[in-house]
Automatic annotation (TrEMBL):
Keyword Plastid set for record: no
Region feature (Disordered): 39-70
Organism: Halohasta litorea
PANTHER family, alphabetized: ENDONUCLEASE V
Binding site for Mg(2+): 79, 143
The protein's name: Endonuclease V
Superkingdom of this protein's organism: Archaea
Enzyme class: hydrolase
Function: DNA repair enzyme involved in the repair of deaminated bases. Selectively cleaves double-stranded DNA at the second phosphodiester bond 3' to a deoxyinosine leaving behind the intact lesion on the nicked DNA.
Cofactor(s) it depends on: Mg(2+)
Compartmental location: Cytoplasm
Length: 274
DNA sequence: GCGACAG
DNA sequence: ATCTTGTCGC
């Protein structure tokens, strides 16, 4: 698929000031409320077959006509791996728990990693990978932040707006914002809101995402850190974390992202020998 | 000036 | 992100 907003595609040659200005424009167009082509409540927690009762599809939203999605919805996981200054962006598309497509792109990096400007480093590889994707996802899961970002325009938000695709950001570390409660040693399934501080471009105290304990050891003295889930585009913070919880999979990372992660490493290995 | 910072 | 052995637990 191709960008719906070519003018928002992250350009690495921009100055830092221009990059930040673009992020503010992206944030202005981002939607942090549910506008999905499917009913999030119908996403099975077991990644198994969807309900066929026929009455599950909500018809309550009477404003914008809910675009018809695939049944069940197609969910894409996107992740990158690197070899020096070469980036590999991998996309794995799932439907009903089954992989229906895998694709990737290899590009050269031109800017270093700078906290807050990640989309300008990895964005081009991602856009090129999407250009080779045949199916049309109903939801995209990115590795990194969405609204949990200084200008509310993290990687997931930026890419979501560029493709006008419902998107979720799934990060392993917190970029900014503050957990309402301590995230230490939590049980599996636990969650707490991430509230904005004055470092974020929105009223302080706004829920910009959730810390979510996707997995935890049953016993012992070792602990797993939570994931930081935030809205990318067209999803609320609550729905974003509900969806990640519903994807399950038994690992720390939700299945779409986990498969994209391993596929990116797989491609990396195959690129190493040539 | 100090602290903080996704991948 | 990436580089990597050993180690803990089921």
């Amino acid at each position: 698929m191709e960008p719906v907003r070519p003018d928002f595609v992250p350009d690495p040659s921009l100055s830092r000031t221009e990059m930040e200005a673009l992020q503010r424009s992206v944030a202005a167009d981002a939607e942090f409320a549910d506008r999905l082509p499917f009913d999030p409540a119908t996403v099975s927690q077991t990644t198994g077959p969807a309900d066929t009762t026929g009455s599950a599809q909500s018809t309550l939203t009477g404003e914008r006509p809910m675009t018809t999605a695939h049944e069940p919805p197609v969910v894409a996981g996107i992740d990158q791996s690197f070899i020096n200054d070469t980036a590999i962006s991998a996309i794995v598309a799932l439907q009903d728990g089954e992989v229906i497509e895998r694709t990737h792109a290899v590009t050269e990096l031109s800017v270093p990693y700078i906290p807050g400007l990640l989309s300008f480093r990895e964005g081009e590889a991602i856009v090129e990978a999407f250009a080779t994707l045949d199916c049309e996802p109903d939801l995209a899961c990115f590795d990194g932040s969405g609204r949990i970002h200084f200008r509310q325009a993290g990687l997931a938000t930026h890419m979501g707006v560029v493709f006008d695709l419902p998107a979720i950001g799934i990060a392993k570390n917190l970029l900014c914002g503050e957990p309402r409660e301590s995230v230490d040693d939590r049980a599996e399934g636990w969650r707490t809101p991430i509230e904005s501080t004055d470092a974020v471009d929105c009223p302080s105290g706004t829920t910009i995402g959730y810390a979510y304990q996707s997995r935890q050891y049953d016993s012992g003295n070792r602990y797993i850190n939570p994931l930081y889930v935030s809205p990318g585009h067209r999803v609320s913070a609550e729905t974003a974390v509900d969806l990640v919880a519903a994807f399950g999979g038994g690992y720390k990372l939700p299945e779409p992202t986990r498969l994209a992660d391993s596929y990116a490493d797989e491609v990396k290995s195959s690129v190493v020998d040539d």
